[in-house]
Amino acid sequence: MLSHLNLEATELRLGLPGSIDDVPSNNKRPSPEDHQTPPAPKAQIVGWPPVKSYRKSTAAAKNEEAESGMYVKVSMDGAPYLRKIDIRLYNGYSHLLTALEDMFKLSIGEYSEREGYKGSEYAPAYEDKDGDLMLVGDVPWEMFMSSCKRLRIMRGADARGLASAQ
Amino acid sequence: MAYSFPEEVLEHVFSFLSLARDRNAVSLVCKSWYEIERWCRHRIFVGNCYAVSPEIVIRRFPELRAVEMKGKPHFADFNLVPEGWGAYAYPWIAAMAEAYPFLEEIKLKRMVVTDESLELISKSYKNFKVLVLTSCEGFTTDGLASIAANCRHLRELDLRESEVEDLSGHWLSHFPDSCTSLVSLNMSCLGSEVSFSSLERLVARSPNLRTLRLNRAVPLEKLANLVRHAPQLVELGTGAYSSEIRSDTFSSLADAFSACKQLKALSGFWDVVPSYLPAVYSVCSGITSLNLSYAAIPSSDLVKLISQCQNLQRLWVLDYIEDSGLEALAASCKDLQELRVFPSDPFGAEPNVSLTEQGLVSVSEGCPKLESVLYFCRQMSNAALIAIARNRPNFIRFRLCIIEPQAADYLTLEPLDAGFGAIVENCKELRRLSMSGLLTDRVFKYIGTHAKKLEMLSIAFAGESDLGLHHVLSGCDSLRKLEIRDCPFGDKAVLANAAKLDTMRSLWMSSCSVSFGACKLLAQKMPRLNVEVIDERGPPDSRPESCVVERVYVYRTVASRQRLDMPDFVWTLDEDSSMRYS
């Protein structure tokens, strides 16, 4: 566990200042721990609590995700280098998109199910677990978080094609 | 006067005795009964693979068809037994391959099984039917491929909770097209994806399939296809239970389930998307066993499913269910017999869910048949335990893990002696108890006084002195297995109760206060006990005898006390009364 290194203090973040609120979404999850003040780390005792290793890995994997974040690469068509963001830091799509607009100095506009991000030159897309390029915003936020492997901000004709094809 | 009953008649009479206990009693009557019985015993259970040797078993029972065996002590599940300690299956498999060509069943728990062993099994027994490997390790999917390919009449392949090195999913495709005998397949512990079409064809050609437990890699979209091929299933473990929400996937799944009129048990449910849970509603009224211990979903979604299962007898769930969910459980599932609540975040410092002692109190109040509990929580009180004990005097198994070691009663800050005392006093049929929290010697006095049917006791971070251990060893008449970690119990209690250890299967003590000298003394005093000093700091006789050992594992045995497979961190007494390792 890396909690004792207090990585939060040195992370570059796009989140709003203050603690991350509860996420109201289709898959209502228990509230995440307050990232701003991680609890004091405990010395781990061998074999305690008595949880079998295969159960630990489901819980530990979740913990590791919470500790190290779910970082995905973000590319923008035409930009010289990629960025990386921790999508767990965001409440939902509007929060994420605002952050992306900020990061890349562009305007993405509003999502509509029928028309995608019409009216904008850019469309936020992501690569899912199957390797397919998907438009950001179609699936519930929780599902997006677990299936998003990388983000791509598309521009120009491709973007319009992707957006209006939805 | 000598008259004898014809052997065949006796054999026929004995054939009605299935319990080992009864057959053991029969074999003690006289020499001829011993002889007749041993020739017609077909099934044995060896609770500790080192309590006896393959040669002894084979010599006594020449006609075995089914062997069940356990290896490592229970605390191995929590990494308290160092890697390489032992419990190798190969010597048994090799010896039995020669002696029992008609062997049909092998069931192993906490043993090290290699691919070599699996291959030997697959090639040695023409009529091999059942392989169950519980919490085993040491083999890869290649070993499974041998079993699949060569066991023509295989009925059960159950890998529950084993650690398998997953080289590929290809092993499943080794089942020949002619194999149609499968009754039970449990591959839930495997990581990699098997060929779905092989799996589908296998299921489709197995009309007797009753139990199918898939692994996480089988996607939800494919589940309906499988279920459709096996509407006769009694137990189903899903794969990952998540998918993009699509109405055709949902209706396909719901339809497939509705055809399963015999389904009694559901498990799996990794990565659950709650919207898909209603697909199983049609079978819920028949469900008696539900394992949701991988389903990380909120209480409200859990409750919606559970409240459909009015006939539920067994529930395994994560603490996401919270007190409110357990209250709902208590209201809807009046037939509940077993409840296990696992921690979603066992290593987190702060509680992440609202699950307290209250949940257990609710269930103990509302479920009159509840007899078996495993409960992880972060706070407990004597008052709650006393209430639980009074509500449910019918408990057989009570395992409570308060996550913080030595946690006191959170209301009064007292030890939890009175609470656990109430449990053993009220629950007169209690066979298994695991305790946690702040406990003094007093609780052990209660246990020694009241827990007369107790067979297995697990203690951690408890007690104050040897008196505690003495109460248990001298008072618990039915005790078979005692496992202790991090308690201030030492030489006096162990040596004073040496004879008791002969009546038990085993005693495990780690991070306690037992000295090397006491271990030697015990081994000298009790020739039929194997006293294993398990210490990774080097030879115990390089330190003073009064030095405390890291771990000691004592078990009764009729085999040699110098097992040939001891690693270099295990010491036992040899013939010249010095501690040696082989």
From TrEMBL, chain A:
Signal peptide: none annotated. The keyword Cell wall biogenesis/degradation does not apply. One of its GO terms (biological process) is regulation of DNA-templated transcription. Residues 16-46 are annotated as: Disordered. The keyword Transcription regulation applies. Homodimers and heterodimers. Residues 69-158 form the PB1 domain. It comes from Salvia splendens. PANTHER family: AUXIN-RESPONSIVE PROTEIN IAA17, AUXIN-RESPONSIVE PROTEIN IAA24. Gene3D superfamilies: Phosphatidylinositol 3-kinase Catalytic Subunit, Chain A, domain 1. Aux/IAA proteins are short-lived transcriptional factors that function as repressors of early auxin response genes at low auxin concentrations. Its main location: nucleus. This is Auxin-responsive protein. GO terms for cellular component: nucleus. Belongs to the Aux/IAA family. Keywords: Auxin signaling pathway, Nucleus, Repressor, Transcription, Transcription regulation. It is found in: Nucleus.
Automatic annotation (TrEMBL), chain B:
Pfam families: F-box_5, Transp_inhibit. Residues 5-46 form the F-box domain. It is found in: Nucleus. The keyword Cell membrane does not apply. Pathway: Protein modification; protein ubiquitination. Keywords: Auxin signaling pathway, Developmental protein, Nucleus, Ubl conjugation pathway. GO terms for molecular function: auxin binding. GO terms for biological process: auxin-activated signaling pathway; pollen maturation; SCF-dependent proteasomal ubiquitin-dependent protein catabolic process. This is F-box domain-containing protein. It comes from Salvia splendens (Scarlet sage).
